[in-house]
Amino acid sequence: MRLPPPPPDETATLAAAPAYGLLVLAFGLHLTVGSQLQRAWLPFGIAYGQVLFFFGLAFLAVVALGQSPRRFFALAPPPARTWPWVVLAALAGFFLAGGLNAL
Hints:
The chain is mostly helical. Helices cover 75% and strands 0% of the residues. Helix 2 (19-40) packs antiparallel against helix 3 (42-64). The longest helix has 23 residues, at 42-64. It is flat. The N and C termini lie far apart (40 Å). The mean pLDDT is 78.
């Protein structure tokens, strides 16, 4: 299954995106702030790196493109009955990643 091509105006916006500048900024933040945070307190430093690189870069790119982050990421709260599972999965992932990083 293939996705339909983006509209021409969206293609032009994506082509003009400051991708390299964003990557250089993220790399600089990781080397300066991230390394100091990891030296000060390893769990917080690792969490900072995860948030910066897995969500922060995508969020900055979407904002730089002039898109709505809420619409782009389809951000909507889950139904009330699923919140305990969401929290449990987040905690399990956090502790599993921390344990793997410690190894």
